[in-house]
Amino acid sequence: MKHAVIRTLVFAVGLWAVQATTAGAATEIQWWHAMGGVNGERVNKIANDFNATQSDYKIVPVYKGNYTETMTAAIAAFRARKHPHIVQVFEVGTATMMAAKGAVYAIGDLMKDAGVPFDTGVFLPAVISYYQTPDGKLLSMPFNSSTPVLWYNKDAFAKAGIESPPKTWPEMKTASEKLMAAGYKCGFSFGWQSWVMIENFNAWHNLPIGTMENGFAGLGTEFVFNNDAVKKHFANLAEWQKSKIFDYGGRRGDSLPKFTNAECGMWLNSSAYYGGIKKQAKFAFGQSMLPIYPDVKAEPQNSIIGGATLWVLKGHPKETYKGVAQFMKYLSGAEVQAWWHQETGYVPITTAAYELSRKQGFYEKNPGTDTAIKQLSLNTPTPNSRGLRFGNFVQVRDILNEEMEAIWSGKKTAETALDSAVERGNALLRKFERANN
User: Do 115 and 263 fall within a single domain?
Assistant: First the structure.
């Protein structure tokens, strides 16, 4: 009898311990992202720091590959009902996510339903407008936003006798020739070429990428980026490639070593490479605004963002979304955003984060690190410079890469390649419309 009582007590205590552990366990919230390397470590820090502020929810960040792979994985997982709560999607995937009927929990609705105070007025207009519906509803949470800038090697400029970074494309040519005369292998290179040389080039010169406000006005848009200015620019680049004034180094960020290894004295790519360049470059470097063709537009308009936002997916228990909302509020806080901005080179998504960075002396200590913010805020965005919202644009970018590489290799003329890119791209737009009508 005595042993039976002891066994009963042991069982009761064990059961109580299990129930207590279960009751106190934090609800896990899966966050799929595309931040590898050092930025992946920074994502983990953000999640861990949030988790330390409360005990009800636990953000679990999971790296799923590059942007395309992460979005594709999330869509497949949603169909299989094994999807995350939050997924990071790059800006050109916006139209695809909007077309995923029944899958997306708009941030505006999420915050309202969860009863979490949320003011969209605190976000930088150039950032938030990209992800809003025509009536102003915010679809996804801005997270890592950037814009392309002109990176330049200050030591190389000094050696070549270049007093200031080029402001025009003719000046880019002259500066490149001086760099090469000083012993450098090439003048400049660039990455993410569709984003930098088509999407931002047109916005910077206030030229349309497509009809119907670059797709923001709805379906039925047509690509028009094969304009005279782009054709002239690409013809110049093709000619410059022959002498290495311009030297192509691959898609995405593949050409970064050409800059950090001091082969090319200039590089046009995302402001978000700040952390990587700071770590890798053995020389003084700076950032400047993108160059312009003064015969196309006397003064630049504004650049457009790249990067990604966080989309919330439906289909999870209602109570978990309260935790998602709390995390979104935490993520947009000035301290978190200022830290993220200063560590990575992504722009601060809120005015408060920008002001905090300024007060902390970040821009004074690191001149040029506010270039991206100045570019995005240079002028009030026009229908040509707000951004873009095209269906199947991830695949369209693949087409653009193929056609542009045919130009750089001399297989096609600028005119032939750009006209082909528009034709092939429009076919994908029509395919997207048929699938979503």
Answer: no
